[in-house]
């Protein structure tokens, strides 16, 4: 139990603490606390769920990578729950997640407001317009990724994101870029690694013939009819 006045150090605790700040100028309203909770819930739930779903689809199709991932999970954790020492050492899993996020970024566009008139390449952008960045178009550009751009090839990321993008961080944006990039990135990646590991420890899975491919944008890009896989207990 938290003591009175001690709200804990998780995000909710920090928000509640800020709503009780003695300095009126720093204090936030209860409405702001509620808004922030809604933002975190919405930004954090759909996105991670869809990443996990598309990763399962890709591994159900590419069973060679599923085997590679399972081998890594069993080497690191055996049948134990994934732990804090092993999770950062998951190289194959990282490659698979990076490639899933390239092909199926849950958030496919981002918007930035132009604060003041600025020259961007050959364009002059006036102040107060919104610029939309097409994440998906960048992720599927053959000039950046090569002619095999539509293929699931986690080996692109075998030497990290910088190498895969030729040191151009602006072409791979699953979590955005700059000061307003995703605050939940590490949390989401760890959560996905844990969930996938626990599935791989227990089941082999293959794509069901009833699956029908139909990505649809409902906030995040999600599979319209779900993802049906056949589970084979190990
Ligand atoms: C696979 C999972 C996720 C993906 C793909 C994702 C993607 C993104 C993207 C593209 C942005 C916009 C960044 C920008 O404009 O540069 C964003 C912002 C944000 N994300 Fe995530 N996100 C994920 C998980 C999460 C989780 C788990 C949380 C919270 C626990 C979260 C909280 C937020 C918040 C609060 C923002 C707004 C940040 C700001 O405006 O300063 N996200 N996310």
Automatic annotation (TrEMBL):
InterPro entries per the UniProt record, alphabetical: Cyt_P450, Cyt_P450_CS, Cyt_P450_E_grp-I, Cyt_P450_sf, Cytochrome_P450_Monooxygen
Domain of life assignment: Eukaryota
The keyword Transmembrane helix belongs to this UniProt entry's keyword annotation: yes
Cofactor requirements of the protein: heme
Keywords: Heme, Iron, Membrane, Metal-binding, Monooxygenase, Oxidoreductase, Transmembrane, Transmembrane helix
Keyword Methyltransferase applies: no
Pfam families assigned to the protein according to its UniProt record, in alphabetical order: p450
GO MF annotation list: heme binding; iron ion binding; monooxygenase activity; oxidoreductase activity, acting on paired donors, with incorporation or reduction of molecular oxygen
Family according to the record: Belongs to the cytochrome P450 family.
Protein name (Swiss-Prot/TrEMBL): Cytochrome P450 CYP749A22-like
Native species: Camellia sinensis var. sinensis (China tea)
């Amino acid at each position: 139990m938290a003591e009175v006045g001690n709200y804990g150090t998780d995000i909710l605790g920090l928000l509640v603490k800020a709503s009780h700040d003695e300095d009126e100028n720093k204090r936030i309203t209860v409405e702001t606390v509620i808004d922030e909770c809604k933002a975190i819930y919405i930004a954090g739930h759909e996105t991670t769920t869809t990443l996990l779903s598309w990763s399962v689809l890709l591994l159900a199709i590419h069973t060679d990578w599923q085997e590679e991932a399972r081998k890594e999970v069993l080497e690191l954790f055996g049948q134990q729950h994934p732990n804090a020492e092993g999770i950062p050492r998951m190289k194959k899993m990282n490659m698979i997640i990076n490639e899933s996020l390239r092909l199926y970024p849950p958030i496919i566009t981002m918007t930035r407001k132009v604060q003041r008139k600025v020259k961007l390449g050959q364009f002059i952008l006036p102040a107060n317009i919104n610029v939309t960045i097409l994440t998906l178009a960048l992720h599927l550009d053959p000039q950046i990724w090569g002619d095999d751009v539509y293929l699931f090839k986690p080996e692109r990321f075998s030497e990290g994101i910088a190498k895969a993008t030729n040191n151009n961080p602006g072409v791979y944006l699953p979590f955005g870029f700059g000061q307003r990039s995703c605050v939940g990135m590490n949390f989401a990646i760890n959560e996905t690694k844990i969930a996938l590991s626990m599935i791989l420890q227990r089941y082999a899975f293959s794509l069901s013939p009833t699956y029908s491919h139909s990505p649809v944008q409902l906030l995040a890009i999600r599979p319209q009819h779900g993802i049906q896989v056949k589970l084979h207990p190990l």
